[in-house]
Each structure stands twice: as structure tokens, then as C-alpha cells.
Amino acid sequence: MNMKNIYKNLLVALFCSVILFLTSCKSQIKITFSKNACTVKYSTKLGKALFDTFYAFAGETESERIFDTEQFKQIFSEGGLKNVSAESKVIDEISIQGDIDGNNGDFISGSSIIKSSNNGKNVEIEFSRNNLLKMYDNMPSIMRSYIDLFMAPVFTEEEMSNEEYLELISSVYGQILADEIKTSTVDFIVVLSDGKTKQFSLELIDLINIKTDIKKNF
User: Fold this and answer.
1) How confident is the model at residue 195 (pLDDT cuts 50, 70, 90)?
2) Nearest to 202 by CA among 137, 87, 95, 125
């Protein structure tokens, strides 16, 4: 395998981790409840610095797509989500959507991060070290292997400050990726079964290196 392909495969794996771990300047998770179902849609746009780095190392032209939508469909389907679809209309963006099983048959519902009652009219979303670890343990092995590249304290169970973690990322992957993680946010949109919409945002670093539980009730 030539050096171009080695770099490309390494960075594709890194970008898979980026998507699975919500790392970009702007990510959005939309959770839609109906009486008998819950659909999760994740959308992201890569930061320009990270986007440019991919082409610089992999030697690609900007007409070539980064994201293999079929690969992402397979990974999330293996994670237990139903009716999975993936779309990449723009070269540096992707959206992935799937239905939560609801019977702990997928890596999301099995973690108890999302709970609903009253036919989806009342929702609790809770991020804690414990339920994020549950989510990780329930993921298919290929998804875990990608996420392992990021050595996230929430999954390695190492105690470190945000600054120490960002220094670790910078030493392994470079300052560009560390800066992306530092400035990234995740926007959540929750659509209840009665049509009411709730929104909140979290700093990515607060999930990667969670110190206190984060709970939202609607």
C-alpha cells in the first residue's frame, strides 16, 4: 500500500471517529418522539481546518467525497438502530438517521440516556459517566474501535482536566484537532409527541470529559 493510501485510510478512520463522537465545529442531534417510536437524526459539518487537513494529508481533490454513507448505515444498523439512512449532499457534511428500538435493543436505548413517558409527551435526557459507558459497551466493536482513537476520559475512565486531555489529543493528532474539540458544540432539538419543540446545547468537551451529570427534563 502506498503512502497516500496509508494516510487516506488513517484519516478516514479518524473521520469515522469524528462523526461517531460528534467532533466538528457544529453538530446537531434531533430526537423526535411519536406515540410509539423515537427517531434520532445526527447532522454535522466539519470544521474548515479539519476538512483542509484531510485533503492535505490524503492527497484528495475536493471533488471527492469524504463520507461513505453505506459504511455509516452498516455501522449504525449493527448498533441496533432500525430504518437507518445516511445522506451526504455536501462534501463536508453528513446526516445519519435511525429509529431507537425502545426495548434496549440498540446502543442508545440500552444506555438509558433517553427516557420517555406519557406516550412521548414527557422526556428525560441524562448524560452521566455511567450511562455513557453503557452506551459505549453496547456499541458494535467497529464503532468502539473508532471511538477508542480519541482516548476520551469518559470511556478510558482516566481522571484528567480538560486542558490535559486537549494536550494529549494535540500530541497524538495535532493542534488542529485539539482546537476543533475545544470549540465544538452539540445542539440538541427534542420534538415531543404533542409537537412541542425543546432545544439545548452542550460543549463537546463537557461530554468527552464529563465531571458532573447533565440532566434535561421536558
Assistant:
1) very high
2) 125
